[in-house]
Design brief:
CATH superfamily of the largest domain: Aldolase class I
Number of domains: 2
Structural class: alpha/beta
Number of helices: 8
CATH architecture of the largest domain: Alpha-Beta Barrel
Order of helices and strands: EEEEEEEEEHEHEHEHEHHEHEHEEEEEE
Strand content: 15-25%
Largest sheet: 8 strands, mixed
Strand order of the largest sheet: 8-9-11-12-13-14-15-16
Helix content: 10-25%
CATH class of the largest domain: Alpha Beta
Distance between the termini: 39 Å
CATH topology of the largest domain: TIM Barrel
Shape: globular
Length: about 350
Amino acid sequence: MHPACSYKLLDDHSVQCHLCQRRCQIAPGKSGYCRTRKNLDGKLFSLIYGRVSSMRISPIEIKPLFHFFPGSQWLSMGSLGCNFLCPGCQNWEIAHADVEKELPPLRFIPPEDAVQLAREDRCKGISWTYNEPTLWFEYTLDSARMAREAGLLTNYVTNAYITGEALDLIGPHLNALRADLKGFSDETYKRIANINGFDGILKILDRARHYWGMHVEIVTNLIPGINDQNTELKKMARWICDYLGSETPWHVTRFLPRFRLAQLSPTSIDKLEKVRGIGLEAGLKYVYLGNVPGHPAENTHCPACGKLLIERVNYQVVQYHLSGTGCGYCGYFIAGYF
């Protein structure tokens, strides 16, 4: 156990967690919705500090982050738990695990060891992924501070349901956010994530991008019959363009049946391509398709001259035609970090 931060003491030794926007009120001896934070005699503790369920060296493209040092390698780490518990979760074995009961094999890796591993393997930085990194907050905050001192970069692969006050704690030490937008209505978020509203997520994305200057890329996993309505997707694309910027990459990814949504069909390629068209029509310059190996919409093209700039095959960069941050053919500025 490790002392938690970002919580408030209530009456009768209850506490209110201020880490994610659920702001769970937790009675003594109980845990919050995510089951990773427990109240012991009026003090909140993290049950997962330094506890690693998944770790590998992986390319930045697998996050996916396509405009943040393409081709670079990252130490990717995950723990246990989630504050959404989506029915179609691709990592449900760790995200839905009961931290005190159903434990997969775990390793304890202190922050300083994680930083050392990243340096030894010549990684660009550390990515917290696989489960929701917000719940690993104390560990990722300590690690991010050490990583920055060591000259490493950092990113969260997140649902962006973190509170503003928690974001502001880690903001100075976090370089990039690969964030989900699972839908663009309260109804859709209720069905997928069992939360009552998504406006707070939009505020976090806006603050991460404009106040903290993080690099932000958005992912929407298109689930047939759940979040694939064109009217909602048009609003989403327009919001990304208007509030995060037309050069913000939007990854529209293919749903693959799993867990409690195993009865559904995979998203059709035709549907993915039509939604990509929605994004481009809204003014977004970079709309990618995911989970469709070999599709040309996995590649980066220059918005000005249309030439192929980055070709990707199985998350690997196989062609690269940028000159600095400009198109290698016409010089057009390509937004991101290259």
